[in-house]
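Standup notes
- HV: blocked on the assembly model, inputs below
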Amino acid sequence: TQQAPGFTTTNAPQQHGGDELLGGLLPAGMDRRSCPSRYETWRYYKYFPYAASRHLQRKLRDYEARHRRCAPGTPLFAKSVEQLRSGRGADDGGMECSYVVWLPMDGLGNRMLSMVSGFLYALLTGRVFLVALPRDTADLFCEPFPGTTWRLPMDDGDFPVANLFPRSQDMDKSYTRLLDAKVIGPDMNATAPAGAPPPPYVYLSLGPRLKDSIFFCGEHQLVLRKVNWLLQYSDLYFAPSLYAVAEFQDELRRLFPAKESVSHLLSRYLFHPTKPVWRLVARYYRSYLAPAKRRIGVQVRMFGYGSIPADDMYNQILACSRQENLLPETDVDDGAGDEQAAAMRSGNGDNAGGSNSTAILVASLYADYYERLKSRYYEHAAKGGETVAVFQPSHEERQATGNSAHNQRALAEIYLLSFSEELLTSGRSTFGYVSSSLAGVRPTMLLTAFGHKVPEPPCRRAVSMEPCNLTPPLLGVQCQGKPVDKEDLARHLRVCEDSPKDTVKF
Ligand code: GDP
């Protein structure tokens, strides 16, 4: 296979070599020039652990055809918008095209995970997935579907929902509120005014406080089928919770025979960085990471509720690394230079690209951990004459989700992490989750310092490359008047290794 400049045979992809469409996951025939990343990322990924099943491939191609039929700019879209403008749902319960509209919430990792989840839901329910991209996210991702757009037109009056982005407490059209107001419901005919059509749109609040957790009950899915427009407010990876809906289980099994491949495959399918982001990624990778024999991504995220002093955090990273045998160990009583000199003599130590070289890529809002790791390998030789170089593309100091250049750098770093052979990420961070999913790597996750106490053990190896659904989705929920059968769910889902129990993942 042809190598991209800056690549050596050792870091070329191992499987799917030469298959830029990722084994039928991606559609053929899209414009290369407008979105080069779509055709180039396969050269950078180190693993291709799961191919798209035939069923998933068929389903995606069908989806793409449906999207083209129903997308903004088509007569069917215009018809659906007119229906919405009329303020009434369709009397016969459905229009030819029905939609999930994704609304932004929280940081980039959160947004990407809720996009993957919403898209999966659209696949399962025959809907069309549109995104209400705010300005700060508008130029991050290429169009994912051929010959059409996934962007919801949002100029004045284009989309007739006033106040499309309500604060969550104002969400009076959320499903549960409408249910309480008896505007809609499983026993709709009994409670709603006789012959009343369903509302034209419903908000789904699947965010942190998960107001609409009954969404994951089968009987409510039946009701929602009649609603043309679902406006999805979520910052979570809620895909695992869809397993609670009996009607979805068979289809999920057919689409993803390996459960842990859901987010991996759908993220690689859906996300393709735009040119400006891809330029950052490719330039950085070639300059700093490509020459090394192996790359370890280290992502350090500190949450307010789990903050600890930087010394403690750094020690946690080192303790984890020792426990999982991750970062190269150093010779404590230095011998500085002896090993290096030997390596030089044997021709291995001439640069960071020798046959025994490791690049550590640090992604963090702060420079501190990068500085410490860099000093570690500057002041001490790595065991075995290994050459270790430490890099950090940016340290933004604070999250600035409203700023599009900041988001571009964040996305670039998510991709750079995803081109690692191994990942050490921060537990509970969606930024880390997305990197692992894209990479196809089961990361080692630093555990959160709940109550500001340094966690013991310092980290755990993830049981799957899937993100955790961080909010217990079905806690206290009654489906068909009965509590959810947790034992049954436990047979399909796993408990997240980085979060309190009751959170689940594939
Ligand atoms: P989470 O909060 O860790 O779940 O991840 P999110 O991506 O949802 O939100 C964190 C946001 O903070 C990111 O989207 C970035 O805007 C910023 N951020 C956090 N960590 C990093 C980092 O390592 N690099 C960069 N460039 N930005 C980061």
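- HV (later): unblocked. Residues 1-15, 347-351 have pLDDT under 50 and may be disordered. The longest strand covers residues 357-364.
- Next: hand off to the docking folks.
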